Amino acid sequence: LHKGRFWITPDPYHNEDNIQIGREVKISCQVEATPSEELQFSWLKNGRALKSSERMVITHTDPNISPGTTNLDIIDLKFTDFGTYTCVASLRNGGIPEISIDVNISSTTVPPELSVPKGQSQLIVLEGDTVDLQCLVSGKPKPIIMWSRVEESGPTAALAPMMPDGSAQMESYDGILRIYNVTRKMSGAYRCQTSQFNGFNVKPREALIHLVVQCEQCTLSTHSNSI
């Protein structure tokens, strides 16, 4: 069992970003398991077992679909529904510790907001430096932040360049993307974006940071030539 994640969908049938009394809210829990057919889920509310009912509808995806997902739909949300919901994933044959994921639903559960610190939307560094790109994220719960590079515009634009580790996206739990030993190839625009994982399943919030990597030898050469 690994990669236990959750997301909250406020009223799947309306274009809402916030949880509202009298509306529906869905909590989804996802876990990867091997073998997938042995995966099973259970739900708790404030530590007590929760059974599927007309207002608390529990569903599961096909266990052969990896990773497995379970959903808890709370119909006609009431103040008495506020509390901590726990999704518990385990294997039927046992032998492996179960995974528990807590999700708090309350009046303070709010969707995320994303911004770039003042003066940090463009960073100029020297080749070989270590640089931190930072996006500030608020909200409760705070979602995982996804970082990616933005493809160049224009007729000669190629596919979006890869991240420093060679992947298309990188995850961050604190909103910081740290790049070691930067090269000029790493110059360009970087996008930070809220993901649904461990947060709200709503339209992603995003921001851009432009990174300019200068060649130290080139800078020294230009400076000496100007003297």
Automatic annotation (TrEMBL):
Gene Ontology annotations of biological process type: homophilic cell adhesion via plasma membrane adhesion molecules; synapse organization
SUPFAM superfamilies noted in UniProt: Immunoglobulin
Name the record gives this protein: Ig-like domain-containing protein
Pfam families tied to this protein: I-set (PF07679), Ig_3 (PF13927)
Transmembrane segments annotated in the record for this chain: none
Taxonomy, superkingdom: Eukaryota
One GO term describing the cellular component: neuronal cell body
Native species: Poecilia formosa
Gene Ontology MF terms in the entry: axon guidance receptor activity
InterPro entries given in the database record: Cell_Adh-Cytoskel_Orgn, Ig-like_dom, Ig-like_dom_sf, Ig-like_fold, Ig_I-set, Ig_sub, Ig_sub2
Gene3D superfamilies given in the database record: Immunoglobulins
Ig-like domain segment(s): 10-106, 112-210
UniProt cross-references to PROSITE patterns, sorted A to Z: IG_LIKE
